[in-house]
Amino acid sequence: MKKNLTFVFALITLVGYAQHNFTDSTYGVNGLFHRVLPNNSGNVYCHAVDSSGVLVLAGKHFNGNFPDHDWAIIKLRPDGKADSTFSTDGVVLDHISAQEDAVTAVGIQSDGKIVAAGYVNNYASYGMIRYLSNGSRDVTFGNNGAVTVLGSGNDGAKSMALAPDGKIYLTTLTSGGSTVLARYTTTGTLDSSFSNNGYIQFTLPVTSFTGKVSILPSGKILVYGHSGPYPSQGSNFTFVRLYNDGTIDSTFGTNGWTVTDRGSDREELNTIALQPDGKFIAAGTMGNGYTYHAAVTRYNQNGTIDNSFGNNGLVEVDHSPLNIGNGSQVMLRSDNKVVVMSICNHDNDGFVYLQRFNSDGSYDTTYANHGHLHARLFSTVNHYGGSMLADNKILFASWGYAPGTSEGFHAARFKAEPFYIANNNCHSLYTLYPDGSQSWYAYVQATGTGSLSYDWNWGDSTTSPNASASHTYSTPGNYNICLTIIDDADCQDTYCDSSTYIFKTEQSMIYINCGTIAPLNVGIAENTAAISPSIYPNPATAQLYIEAGNNTLTQINFYDVTGNLVMSVAPSATSNQISVGSLPSATYILEVRTKETSVKRKWIKL
């Protein structure tokens, strides 16, 4: 039996490296890697992983002479430690011009050489460099290891794919937003046997096409991305398939093209995962106005939508209690289960969101917290990427801040099954999430036989044995919170969030609610809109007041945490007071509607 609990804490800020129950402790330091480059800088824009688990992080770093940024590459061994045989302590800093330069696409050859591509001289041109396994330039490639590649504009090289024969596929953009796919030989020259003198520029009956490249098991080439008015307004998932010689495969979709319009303002495709049967799964962002979420669609081998997946081929991914999902990553496990990764930054915490689905698109409730894993790893996470390893562990690549450090390169490895359940008959679990400027929620997924009793250990030598509890820390410090549950069959299990926190008592009080997370089609996620209503008091017992400035309130809807409508109120023209005394004590999602728009906020009824 699930119980709703309410707690009162002081503001929580993640500090230091900590052992998480979801990261692989054999990787890096407690499952994490963070490296600050000289001048306290480092931005990751791409990553690559080889079959042994070697991870390459690539991007840029500031060399101290504004605006000069150099190409930056870090190579990690399979154990998450910097490869000391790669240049100096695993890091290559390559100065190319006196302006801003950055790596935006990278790949690892089967012989261990690393191919990097990106922009140089503040986007004036694109370049490609091949490095030996020791980090030095491969002088047999191009001109002393470097090649000037096709493309222009402000996006750099979009993606890279390395063929089994060693040839290099690279997508770049023109200044007008059209994708160029080029194929280079193993020595860095354009391959004249591919399309028109080594490259093809795609044209569509739309303004632009931003594409990435993947090599299919058949040897055909799939270019995928989004098309629509440049840069990305009114965009749609878009695919084009080519034969190995660069001609368009007309047996795919309609004359070689598939464009999927789900009716949203913004539909941007970020990554795909290839299934063994030839089907492929695409993940990206979908939404309207200011509200976006991750969207996943599966396609048949011929480019048509696979309606057996999710809801007519579509799975909309919830990230409650935060509505995020930009640039979502999709990965396929060896058992054909699907993992979707997204990120969010909030109040000095960087969150990674993993959700796992069965092969039919339904939530895999055996994974983590009912199919969801929301992990706090670093202070901020940006420009992330994810890769599935052969053992179903997941590598995460990013940049940002780690607690107590400057900006740098991030990496982490997640366990294949992130939570160890000591007793299969009962399971204690909770996760903290931020909500609003000074609010946190703890979602509890505890299971057992019959009713459950809860015992909270606050980590400061105090406990709360009751189902409903509150706690305030009297002094700042590091605390570890544990939840122990006991069911009617006397099965007992304890879960501790072993991240390290510092609680600052001088900050405003915040509230934590325990509940469950629901899929998007039955849940409600908070959004950001043009209005910012004032909802007080929060929490409340009998009366609630809602103010929306100069906006005219038209309707207030109360939803529970699973998305069910509990109460609907039409505000009075002369009063903004709502009676809530009849509502059960719980956390609700309030949908505040005006004539122009709507916004959702979380609210607690005591």
Stretches with pLDDT under 50, minimum 5 residues: 1-19, 434-439, 498-530
Number of strands: 44
On the 0-100 scale, what is the average pLDDT? 78
The secondary-structure class comes to mainly beta
Read across the widest sheet, the strand sequence of neighbours is 2-36-35-33-34
Tertiary shape? globular
Q: Treating each run of at least 4 consecutive H or I residues as one helix, how many helices?
A: 0
Largest sheet: 5 strands, antiparallel
- Level of helix content? under 10%
End-to-end distance: 20 Å
Strand percentage: over 45%
Output the radius of gyration.
25 Å
Describe the 3D structure.
The protein is mostly beta strands and 606 residues long. 0% of the residues lie in helices and 46% in strands. It contains no helices and 44 strands. The strands form twelve sheets. The chain has a five-stranded antiparallel sheet, with no helix packed on it. The protein is globular and about 75 Å long. The two termini are 20 Å apart. Residues 1-19, 434-439 and 498-530 have low confidence and may be disordered.
Distinctive features:
606 residues, mainly beta, five-stranded antiparallel sheet, four-stranded antiparallel sheet
What's the gist of this structure?
This protein is mostly beta strands. Helix content is 0%, strand content 46%.
Secondary structure elements and pairings:
Layout lengths: L5 E4 L1 E4 L17 E4 L7 E7 L5 E8 L6 E8 L14 E4 L7 E7 L5 E7 L4 E7 L14 E4 L9 E4 L5 E6 L5 E6 L14 E3 L6 E8 L5 E8 L7 E7 L14 E4 L5 E9 L5 E9 L2 E9 L14 E4 L11 E4 L5 E9 L2 E9 L14 E7 L3 E7 L5 E8 L5 E8 L15 E5 L5 E5 L7 E6 L5 E2 L12 E11 L4 E13 L5 E4 L20 E3 L6 E5 L5 E7 L5 E5 L7 E3 L6 E9 L3 E8 L1
Antiparallel strand pairs: 1-37, 2-36, 3-30, 4-5, 5-6, 6-7, 8-9, 9-10, 10-11, 12-13, 13-14, 14-15, 16-17, 17-18, 18-19, 20-21, 21-22, 22-23, 24-25, 25-26, 26-27, 28-29, 29-30, 31-32, 33-34, 33-35, 35-36, 38-39, 39-42, 40-41, 40-43, 43-44
